[in-house]
Sequence to fold (582 residues):
Amino acid sequence: MQITIQDIEQIALTAQLELTAEEKERQLEKFNKLFQDVEVLAQVDTSEIEPLAHVQSIKNVLREDLLQESLSQEKVLQNAPDQEEGMFKVPKII
Amino acid sequence: MQLHEYTISELSSLISKKEISILELTQHMLGRIEKLDSELGCYISIVEDQAMEQAAKVQKMLDKGILTSPLTGIPMGIKDNICTEGILTSCGSKMLSNFVPPYNAHVVKKLYNSGSVLLGKLNMDEYAMGSSTESSYFKKTRNPWDTERVPGGSSGGSAAAVVAGEAIYSLGSDTGGSIRQPASFCGCVGLKPTYGLISRFGLVSYASSLDQIGPLTKTVTDCALVLNAIAGHDPMDLTSSRRIHPDYTKALINDVKGMKIGLPREFIDDSVEKNIRDAILNAVKVFTDLGAECVEISIPVMEYVVPTYYIIALAEASSNLARYDGVKFGYRASNPKDILDFCKRTRSEGFGTEVKRRILLGTYVLSSGYYDAYYKKALKARAIITREFNKAFEQCDIIIGPVSPTTAYKIGEKINDPIQMYMEDIFTVPVNIAGLPAMSIPCGLDNNSLPIGLQLLGKRFDEQTIIKTAYTFEQNTEFHNLRPNLNV
Fold:
């Protein structure tokens, strides 16, 4: 299967990335090379196999809903690129 | 012998006998970094003032008998994707080049509590995505054995610092080999623990079902000491295991008599450089001479471990890295036209080429129409790979093989062929896929006098057998004493 420039553009949009024409070409070339190597996976017989997302048998962890210490507002905002009145500030949306 | 050449266990004894002070040791290490790091580039940040303050504080606590851990006063370096409160944690990326965490990772808290002294934060491939530390936004790290060569990656700074004596030990992280491969390229001990043994709280996520933090040290004994300090349950990481971990130093036993050591035939095929194959076979001989039995086994999944790994890792990465949008922390693009431009430009300007590639690939395999063919297929392959390793461990106590098919290569040699670089992760990625523990230890030098690593793979939560086997190898060989000639 060949991936096209249009595919790359569509994926970039989904991933919220902007690529230059040159970047698109370069990424496309690597994409197609990688997916050639991935083809081997299609040959593996997995008809009787259940997918394994995680090696541990993970169960949901529950706890009592108790008040616990957490980061202060000041600390939470310490890395904010922009803030105002204790809130994260972003460009106008609507 | 100079202070930076000692191991944790040796320094710990000197400190407790008051033959050296923690301040003197910290000062020496900072001087060593000052002398060497402009050439080697192991550190992204060096925290001199904090290190000296911490050293003074720890010395007082030791004198009062409050601190008695074997790590008390031992200078360490931490990979720059592990959060340190008040200290830049950049992940090797422009995106986090201004990120100062408001909290410590669980492992950092534990090491501080044991009295270890932080020297600084170590260089790495951007977001731990790479095998050569060439994709760091800040600098390239050089291999102490040959400064024209890469130290491996992504924990390249962590491995090079330990070998060059710029840290007594370090922490790295391993998603597909990022501790073991640099340990192999630089000639130190590197352990990727069982998934769930070490809390990931405060580790910047790459692929959450594969990531694990682990130590890089000069010796197996030091590895056991650091593992003792960082292992254990943490309620802040839902995947953290609740089992009580043993005292790993109890596994430091020089004996492999009667042990069954599995050598998969797929691990010593022609894709592996001859020097490396010879070194592995020599290691087999060391073990059999000591009374172990070598069992030839087969793990018939090796053709597809790399594609399986990359599909899972990149799918998880594309999801984990969706959080970098310029709103709450990290880099933000200036003068955006609108909110979409704001988000897109922040991400496009903040991430490097390799990170973008991995996000794109991950997004692709998760997109509708391709999800079943790639992502779901890879999860099924993961089940088979895990099953095959479980089956292999019915025939042996431990599996050995190479870490990488090559030794350290030249800087720039492979950076333009990322897919080839991916393929060279073949011997390290299955361990992460199956959640197993594995260690790399030095087992020889190749024709260019570059270190070769021996990989030891254990059953889940059986770090003890790895430690015992590796310790026996160390006690009966001299490879762990080999050091690069740095002319200082």
